[in-house]
Known about the structure:
Number of strands: 8
Low-confidence stretches: 1-7, 637-645
Mean pLDDT: 78
Strand content: 5-15%
Oligomer: single chain
Structural class: mainly alpha
Helix content: 55-70%
Distance between the termini: 103 Å
Radius of gyration: 35 Å
Strand order of the largest sheet: 1-2-3-5-4
Shape: flat
Amino acid sequence: MTAVASEDVPETRHRLRRRLRAAVLGPRGGGTTRRRASDAIRLGLAIIVVAVSIPVMRANSALELSIVRALHPPPEAISWLVTSVFWLGSAGVGTVLVVVGLLVPRFVAVRWTALAAVLTWGLCVLLGALLGSAAGRPPVSALAGLNAGYPVIEIAVTIAAAATALPYLSRPVHRLVSVLIGLAVLAAICGGQALPVNAISSIALGWGVAAALHLAVGSPRGLPSAAEITEWITDLNVAVRDLTRSPRQVWGVEQFTGRDPAGNAIELSVYGRDASDARMLAKLWRFCLYRDSGPTLILDRLQQVEHEAYLTLMAGRAGVLVPDVLAAGRFGPSRDAALATQVPDSVALAKATGDDLADGTLDEMLRAVLRLRDVGIAHGALGGDTIIVSGRGTCIRDFRRASAGAPAGRLDDDMAAVLGAMAVRAGAERTAAAAVRVLDADTARGALVHLQRSALDPITVAALKHQKDLLAQLRAAVAAGTGIEVPKLAEAKRVSWANLLFAVGSLIGIWLIIGVLADAGDSLAAIKGASWGWVALTFIFAQLPMVAEAWALLGAVVGDLPFGRCVALETSNSFTALVGGDVAVFALRVRFFQRQGHDAEAAVSAGAIATTASWTAKSLLFLIAIPFAAGSFHSPSSSGGSQNAVWVILVVILAAGIAAALVALVPRLRRLVSSKIRPHLVTIWANVKTIATEPRKIVYVLGGSTLAQLLVVLALGTSLHAVGQHASIATLITVNTLAAIVGGAVPVPGGLGVVEAGLIAGLTSVGIPQDQAVAAVLIQRFCTAYLPPVWGFLTLTWMRRREYV
């Protein structure tokens, strides 16, 4: 009997230990972790709050001072309580978290909690060094005796540690820790250990570090294990055994597979707490990048499973083989939402072999999508994982991203997606043959318009990395089989890399122009006192380059062009350069040449000759001028816009050097650049040889381009005279060329901001005082870059109405 009792002691201790862990620790989801959408949102909000709070702190707002006066100091009778609550909610919570973390196997919680605390402490020290002990907050008498320091290290570190550890804790402990920290923050403000905005920003700082850490390594929150789901799913009257997590997971939903008591395959889609956040981020991401952001946003997880179940049933009603819906609703202690379906024994298209993909099977896949199309249902995620081949036919599963009453473009995306997924497994020829047998010409054309990577599922896109020409071959084969021309691809993306670079360049330009204007206080006085005769001459010189560039256009093309139309084109380009940069100017010139009766190849060549001639003239003038101007330059003693320009110039030179080195050293890049540029160079050289037979054409091209550059330089020189300064023509050519190079290298509309900063840096480097340099540059740029787009837009409108462009 004693032996039995002694044997029961370890078991009793084990049960007690298990109960203790269950009381303080949350479910660990079988030990797995994941990156949650909500953490991404928390990190973004934390960055915004910290960024906004810094200028608010420096403002010392009346509202904040009123809050401080209302809460501080606390009554003497409870001052000890305020101090105790502060330390209990800061150092006390940290101690409790360490003790609780020791209960977690392998010390996972302790490790990540300690790392979050150390990272936050380091970030606080760094911010303190960068912003100063009070983050630039001006001292006022109302804050005497209060701690105005930022960040508040005790609050930030405690929040970071707690937010990192909370996913490992049970709900009661979670709430207790949150309440203690909230009271501690309030006590810190009452006791003068922190100011309100400093405390809020410190909370956001620790919160953001914890969210970033969870994004990096994952967290167990919202991840019930397969065993827990097997037990809890009985709330929906569904019995499942042998439940396992699916190898491929989708952000925001956990997918499981198992068997019912009869041995039939069961699939479970479990929507946890961050399902809404994941769906919102996915919607936002698609909205920013693509023209069609996908189905309507549903934030409630129960509505999500009801939506998926409804569209699955509607697809089955339309004659499509779909999984049988067994149950949809909430289950378990966390009230997660789940959809349970029974799927036929089958193989996914991504794993199908040639024996599984007979011609009849390929035809049936397309017919299934046509049935969905007939009732206006767009699946939204057709591919190798959602199309399955079974003995009963082609089955389509996972209607999570489906939409009813879908627009034609979304339906065409579905057809394009299934064609791409079929081609990856069966090849382009067999897929095209199936499309010819099943699809009519209009449906095939709509699918081909959308047959690109953005319409395909991730599995298909990954497979295309090893079959890069497959989509092009499929488009050509389907078009030939259905008797149509290969259509132009739809513009699916809202933002391209070029647009993104253009936006970044615009931000750089805005930053630089703000830097220029910030130093323009005394320059405005110089502008007011300027000689208006010289200003008028600057305006005249600034308009003449359009005439000179029009003269250059006459020589850029074989045959004759109306000179007046060329002047109108270059006038309209003053607006085009502002909104679209050099690329848009080139495109407009090509369009103009085409409208004047030249074929596409000749038009592109003429546009390239005109653009190349302009930069050739700049280079020749620079090479001639630099020996005469070199002795005039010295290091500028002033700061501001000139310093900004120096950094931009250095970045541009470094980027150009890196790009040139990569092209020279990497054979693949060298071949790519050669394949892209060489055909155009051959065409341009052929046109140059043709133009060279007429000497007047060479005079027009080089003379017009050179004259245009000299007129811009003269406009800069007269603007300097307007403010009582001057520089040699060689110096002005050198300064203007360097500024133009930097402005052309940075993707900014019209070089706005970048050219101004470059010109100011150049002029101050040759001894022009900062105020006069800024004034002269603003006068010259106002006449050359800011005013001309006004009549440039009017001229462009007139040319479009006359169909000249």
